Prior knowledge:
Strand content: 15-25%
Order of helices and strands: EEEEEEEHHHHHHHHHHHEEEEEHHEEH
Helix content: 25-40%
Structural class: alpha+beta
Number of strands: 14
Largest sheet: 7 strands, mixed, barrel
Radius of gyration: 25 Å
Shape: flat
Number of helices: 14
Amino acid sequence: MDLILSAPGQVRAGGQATLGLPPSRHKGGLPAWRVGQVIGGRVLARISANSYLLVVEGQEVLARSAFSLEAGQFVVMEVQEFRDSRYMVRLLSPGPEQKEKGEEAMKSLPHQLGLKDTPVHRALIQAFIAQKLPLTAGRIKEAALMLGFLQARAGEVPSPEEIATVLHALKRELPPRPEVLQALHAFVNAEKEGRQGTMTRLVSFLFSASPVLEEFLTDAQGRSLWLQLKAAAKALVLRPHEGPAGVAEQLRSLLGAQLPRAEPSHGYEEGIGKGFEGRRYGEVSPPGRDLPTRLRQFIRHLDQYEATGEKPAFLASIKEEGHGLARQLWGQYLWQTGKGEGEAYLYFSLPVLLDGQILKWGELLIKKDRGSTVVIDPQDFTVTILLHTRHLGTLSLEIRVRKSEVTVQGKVEYAWVGRLLDSSWSTLEEALEGLGYRLHKATWAVCRVTSIFNPQGTPGSGTAPGVISVDVKV
């Protein structure tokens, strides 16, 4: 499309603009925008003195303008008329130098969309714009309905976690059912807490409860169910003392356990997983398969012990923790599945056993840079890995693989850590060269390193060569 802004000198709210498809992009028809519809666009890059590349509701457009636009700038427009194969639109959002007018324009958007001006609608509109989602009244209403399943009091200003949950469900086209959204929300909340996370809590729970439960359980079925869960716990934690080969197999099992089998018949008894199909990521090792189902079966089995009156506080604690963990794990399965654009990346938590303690060693995020419709391409993907270490602090690496070229950007808490890693970089370069990759010098930012779990957007990321081979298998 061609976007021509008539206002001289600057982007102004209330100005006029014209939209039209360029011949090279025209493939049989213009977008079906109607008069009065509100659309949003973001500036991607400057092409020439008066031309810019934008994306408007998922389509690339050309912008011809007598004034300056900034890369990353978002403009919201209302369609005025369609003329000469172009749309005339009115700008509702201003440039960055007119913040106060921009806030007024944002307040008018609910009315422009035919919606009531409520805290929920305002929050959702801002989130849709930030996420570059199509801004329509129908989608906002759908998101508001989904928020109602999560909020204790409907109509309140939603939390960032509630917004993240709803937007993720919309992007992945998950069924808008209460049990689905509540499980997804439980996972988002658990991961946003920081150092623990769902998988670390699950493994720690299974290890710590084992001695008491083995003494407490008296029936064969209960002991069998618990032994299965205990075996799963051993398969879901990294044990560095067992050497590289052992850790590689443990990592494969751990990552596989955090991917859903994505069969409609595998879901919560309340209905999670029924009625929609996700993506099958491959077979998962037996110890890590169907963890939420096994955990819930065991928790239900404990009901028969309540009649005995033995250890009532212990039983209540085990059941409450088990129910919560099962819900969070189902939430992670839902986070990884679906068929929308959000499926372009996968997130994993990495528990580790050190000195008899279960700790969260780090996080792994794999981004399929060619989109969600393809499997992970070993020559075109990005991985981010975050690690908590005893002596180097917390650090993260983002590694981008483009054919044979490998680039690395890192974050460290101390400058000397970056220098230390640079001193051993040549060894890593030689190792990757033997695998057919050319590793470039890394760049390090010294800053506070936080979680790479970012449910507000689609993260971009990268990792170490030992992890790459495992990613591809999974």
